[in-house]
User: What shape does this take?
Amino acid sequence: MKKVMILLQKKYSSIRELDRLTRELEEVAARGDGISAAMVLEMRGEEMEKTEHCMEELWQLGEEDREAYERLKVLLESDPSKARGETKEEEMIYEIRRKTQEVLERLRRTDQRLNERMAGKKSFYKDVKSVDKAV
Assistant: This one.
């Protein structure tokens, strides 16, 4: 459980950094600073890779034991706003996931604004009325 908490905390930190970088990208795009935008996009890509790596490591924890995999699946895929842990460690895991979800929702809203501003009618979000509804 401790390794799961550590990896989820690392993922949370990377997502917070993604959120910060996305807000920074929004600012440099508004200024029309293409060089800075390219640098920020590269940094965002690196943070996305870190996030993906954390998830890969998490799933690898359950590869050797079917029971551990099933428990890990419940911890990682259940709705963190409704889930309750059986132990203090599990409750902390759900708390980290709740905080992560909050940051992800803010990040999606920022990304939607940025994408719509940059891509207009070709926006990834063109068919989505609201990010809040899509989450």
